[in-house]
Amino acid sequence: MNTGTVIEQALEAAEPVLQGEVVDFLGPKDRNNAIIKLARTGQDLGRFTVRVSHIARTSDLIWYRAEKERGDNSTPLLLIAPYLSVKLAEECQRTGINFLDTVGNAHIDVPGTYLFITGKPRPKEPRAATDQSALRKASTLRVIFALLTIEGLAQQPVRTIAEAAGAALGSTSNAIEDLVALGFITGEARKRRLANKEALQVEWARQYPISLRGKLKPQRYACVDGADWRGSSLLTDEPEVALGGEMAAAALTQYINPASACIYSWLDRGQLLRKHRLRPDPGGPIEVLDAFWPRADQAKAKAVEPAVAPLLLVYADLMASNEGRSVEVAGMLMERLKNGA
């Protein structure tokens, strides 16, 4: 149990009822004592000497009761625990032990202030770190893509992340837990941030053609009238599509001459084919897939005409081709990803 993390989680869970900050650790952060300041609606409640411990039964509180009686009244004792049940919270109330836990239960009884909150449920046990098979789910890949391509999304509520990813709320919550377990997300709630971002980008690109791409209804087409595909209005005059693969790479780098087109579309597939006079052809030069990210966000990706898919997706398309020239350009795009382009 990391003391610093437990204290930070407890102070965050107490907001906005209580506001607190660590003044000093009385030793390394993984030891079980610190000094914190608490306030309530602007009223300074003073400093507290913190003891962090896992409390499983009432007998575990005996030491705290004795310590409280011996303690310095200028810095009253404050118990911080990962979780206190209703029974344990009521025992703390009865015996005068001030406490906070990491889900927002609390008892604070100091001159001028009394606070007692209990009944908040036990936190879910954090998932143990697993291998990266957790990242093979299509819903998880949608969530990762949204987190990697939409600035600041990690700090938003889970519902907002789910909407941006086009994933169910439960699937999004599970995906975030998996990313935390694997070390790709750190922090809690509004303080979440991505970690090991480059490794996550590479892993997403590796898993995308395996677990997500096939669900986007990829299909190849040719022009009905036999015209050259490079002149199709789909590639030049359609606002509801974005270029992927070699076409996007050519627009971004001017380093490659595309041999085929990869298109991500927000339009209904039948409407798209009628509008641009395309017919199914297994060997056709135009591949169309359903776009899976918000249309408004792709418009911000790059000021390139025509619109291109987010850089991470273009990189994944190129790497999945296993063609030397495409992989070479993918390396160029990865450098842009590393630099936040």
Along the chain, the helix and strand elements come as HEEEHEHEEEHHHEEHEHEHEHEEHHH
User: Hey, roughly how much beta strand do the residues contain?
Assistant: 15-25%
> How many H/I helical runs?
13
Q: Can you count the beta strands?
A: 14
Q: Report the structural category.
A: alpha+beta
Largest sheet properties:
7 strands, mixed
Please list the strands of the largest sheet in the order they lie side by side. Answer: 1-2-3-4-5-6-7
List low-confidence stretches: 297-304
Portion of residues within helices: 25-40%
Shape verdict? elongated
Alpha carbon gap, first and last residue: 38 Å
As a whole number of angstroms, the C-alpha radius of gyration is 27 Å
Q: Averaging pLDDT over every residue, what do you get?
A: 86
Describe the structure.
The protein is an alpha+beta fold. It contains 13 helices and 14 strands. The chain has helices at residues 3-14, 62-70, 86-95, 138-149, 158-165, 169-181, 197-212, 233-236, 245-253, 269-276, 295-298, 311-321, 324-338, and strands at 19-25, 33-40, 43-52, 77-81, 98-101, 106-110, 113-117, 185-186, 193-194, 219-223, 241-244, 261-265, 278-280, 286-290. The strands form three sheets. Strands 1-2-3-4-5-6-7 form a seven-stranded mixed sheet, with helices on both faces. The chain has a five-stranded mixed sheet with strand order 11-12-14-10-13. Strands 8-9 form a two-stranded antiparallel sheet. Strand 6 (106-110) and strand 7 form a beta hairpin. Helix 5 (158-165) crosses helix 6, helix 9 (245-253) crosses helix 12 and helix 9 crosses helix 13. The model is unreliable at 297-304 (pLDDT under 50).
